[in-house]
């Protein structure tokens, strides 16, 4: 999705899904279809993206990935190629999750990233000290993009990050010390039980993708966890919650 003046241009993988969206939107706004050639439309729609820095992490496209910042604190640059996988750092929810990851101790942890998209959160977790990270997405194109992003970051510890295609609601995964879930408010609610099961006692869940209007409903769905932080940016919310050690 890209802003164009007072409007938006939204890219779809197929004309069928585009046409469904047109039907749904026509009662409330003016919609015009535009055919875009199949040749790498995702890259072309994002080719002007620039690096984004959150704390000591910079997420950068391959064509603009020089390290940034003059702080004495070690800097981390993650190279992400804009593609079918969500997560270039330009959306508030990705930035919120990256900020929250930097607030917790990841040393030696197993990290799970549900809805991994570009893989940026799983990569960030390992670079921040996690022993291993697994990224899960139900979109094969996103998983392929995440795997390709590993090759753009040659300094990553070999074999410590894996990406798999899977359904959060049904797949079996080992419990982890840290779980990230940048999904949607509706999916967070539907998957609340599964996400809590994915946490080890004392583990931390960072969730985003919900809007301010969904805040209370999502919070109720995770009433069994202790919310330790909440942040908002551009109308989007992130919760950081901990599973009690005696659960």
Care to give the gist of this entry?
With 247 residues, the protein is α/β, with parallel strands linked by helices.
Topology:
Layout: E1 2-4, E2 7-9, H1 15-25, H2 41-45, E3 52-54, E4 57-60, E5 76-79, H3 92-101, E6 110-114, H4 120-127, E7 132-137, H5 140-151, E8 161-165, E9 176-182, H6 185-190, H7 192-197, E10 199-211, H8 215-221, E11 226-233, E12 236-242
Parallel strand pairs: 4-5, 6-7, 6-9, 7-8, 9-10
Antiparallel strand pairs: 1-2, 3-4, 10-12, 11-12
Give structural notes.
By secondary structure, the chain is an alpha/beta fold. Helix 5 (140-151) links the parallel strand 7 and strand 8. The chain folds into 2 domains: 1-36, no CATH class; 85-242, Rossmann fold (3-Layer(aba) Sandwich), CATH 3.40.50. The strands form 3 sheets. The protein has a 7-stranded mixed beta sheet with strand order 8-7-6-9-10-12-11. The longest helix has 12 residues, at 140-151. The chain is 26% helix and 28% strand. It is built from 8 helices and 12 strands. The protein is globular and about 55 Å long. It has helices spanning 15-25, 41-45, 92-101, 120-127, 140-151, 185-190, 192-197, 215-221, and strands at residues 2-4, 7-9, 52-54, 57-60, 76-79, 110-114, 132-137, 161-165, 176-182, 199-211, 226-233, 236-242. The protein starts with a strand and ends in a 5-residue tail after the last strand. The model has no long low-confidence stretch (mean pLDDT 89).
């Amino acid at each position: 999705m890209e802003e164009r003046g007072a409007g938006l241009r939204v890219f779809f993988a197929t004309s069928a899904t585009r046409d469904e969206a047109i039907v749904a939107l026509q009662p409330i706004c003016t919609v015009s279809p535009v055919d875009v050639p199949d040749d790498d439309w995702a890259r072309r729609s994002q080719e002007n993206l620039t690096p984004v820095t959150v704390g000591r992490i910079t997420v950068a496209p391959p064509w603009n990935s020089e390290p940034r910042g003059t702080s004495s604190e070690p800097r981390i640059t993650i190279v992400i190629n804009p593609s079918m996988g969500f997560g270039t750092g330009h959306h508030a929810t990705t930035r919120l999750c990256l900020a929250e990851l930097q607030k917790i101790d990841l040393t030696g942890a197993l990290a799970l990233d549900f809805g991994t998209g570009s893989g940026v959160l799983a990569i960030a977790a390992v670079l921040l000290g996690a022993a291993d990270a697994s990224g899960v997405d139900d979109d094969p194109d996103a998983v392929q993009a995440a795997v390709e992003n590993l090759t753009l970051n040659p300094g990553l510890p070999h074999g410590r990050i894996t990406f798999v295609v899977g359904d959060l609601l049904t797949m079996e995964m080992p419990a982890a010390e840290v779980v990230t879930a940048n999904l949607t408010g509706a999916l967070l609610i539907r998957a609340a039980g599964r996400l809590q099961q994915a946490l080890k006692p004392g583990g931390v869940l960072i969730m985003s993708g919900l809007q301010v209007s969904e805040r209370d409903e999502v919070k109720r769905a995770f009433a069994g966890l202790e919310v330790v932080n909440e942040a908002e940016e551009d109308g989007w919310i992130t919760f950081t919650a901990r599973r009690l050690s005696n659960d």
